[in-house]
UniProtKB/TrEMBL annotation:
It is found in: Membrane. This is Probable C-mannosyltransferase DPY19L1. It holds the Pfam family Dpy19. One of its GO terms (cellular component) is nuclear inner membrane. It comes from the Eukaryota. It is a multi-pass membrane protein. Belongs to the dpy-19 family. Keywords: Glycosyltransferase, Membrane, Transferase, Transmembrane, Transmembrane helix. GO terms for molecular function: mannosyltransferase activity.
Length: 290
């Protein structure tokens, strides 16, 4: 992300804007506190040292300093929670616009020179900016997932609002958003507790005994576990399926059939899926009750 922001020159320009604002604010504060008894910035004093005119702006640049603080807070939040960079990026754009201010960048020379520098800067930013726009404009698609819609409809009509669900993080986000059912894991990767709970849920895709996964889910208070066929059998490349990934973590059970594959085989054969109970199935999703 930092590399992408730097390629468009957004990050360097925002840094320059922040430094310029901080420099002017600090300079004013030093001047104010060191010489406030002798002269009043933006005001006048009589021979007795008392103001004969109130300060029109006792804190110049305060509004810009506020944006510096706000941008800093949003950037910190974006670093901690990457998906919240949607707040940090606009804040950086505001600070980057400071480079066009004569108030802060009059030292570059005349107004014409400053404008020429801005035109060159915008041209440099446009190189990567136009490429980014073309990439976005060429991205097209339509969301259509009838199997997920069928699953959501079943949850809405056939389960209690107090029933707790577990499954893949994308599926859990959809379940929580559309059905308001309690879930034990969701896509908040930055939280260590959620990562640990998600790892426990994903034991269903490991080669551990199904009884152990069932007990783990029971201990977590889960009523239904949603397993997905493509998560169990699909792979983007060799050794990248969920069972293969679990082999790195769980050497002891390497070579055993995965729990999810055993459950899918029992479901297709019509036999019992003990210790689970089959609650729902379609081509993509299978819901087992604990």
């Amino acid at each position: 992300t930092f590399y992408k922001l730097s390629k468009t020159l957004l990050l360097p320009c925002a840094f320059l804007g922040i430094v310029a604002v901080l420099f002017k604010v600090i300079k004013f504060e030093i001047h104010y506190w060191l010489w406030r008894d002798d002269e009043k910035p933006n005001g006048t004093a009589d021979e007795n040292g008392e103001d004969d005119m109130p300060l029109s702006n006792p804190k110049p640049c305060a509004e810009h300093f506020y944006h510096v603080l706000q941008a800093s807070a949003f950037v910190i939040i974006a670093i901690l929670i990457m998906r919240l960079k949607l707040f940090g990026t606009p804040a950086l754009c505001i600070m980057a616009s400071m480079v066009a201010s004569r108030e802060y960048f009059s030292f570059v020379g005349s107004k014409n020179r400053h404008q020429a520098i801005l035109v060159i800067l915008l041209a440099m930013m446009s190189v990567q900016g136009i490429d980014n726009l073309n990439t976005q404009f060429n991205t097209s698609g339509e969301y259509n997932n009838p199997h997920l819609e069928e699953l959501i409809s079943w949850i809405d009509t056939k389960t209690s609002k107090s029933h707790v669900f577990a499954g893949s993080m994308p599926a859990m986000a959809t379940v929580k958003l559309t059905t308001k059912r309690p879930i034990v894991n969701h896509p908040h990767y930055e939280d260590a507790g959620l990562r640990e709970r998600t790892k426990k849920v994903y034991q269903i895709y490991s080669r551990k005994p199904c009884e152990k996964s069932w007990q783990t889910l029971r201990d977590m208070g889960v009523n239904y576990i949603i397993i997905e066929r493509n998560w169990c059998f699909g792979r983007s490349r060799e050794k990248c399926s969920m069972p293969d990934i679990w082999d790195v973590e769980d050497n002891k059970n390497r070579g055993r059939p995965s729990c999810c594959s055993l459950l899918f085989r029992k479901v297709e054969e019509g036999s019992h899926v003990k210790p689970f109970q089959l609650a729902f199935r379609n081509n993509d999703y299978t819901v087992l009750r604990t």
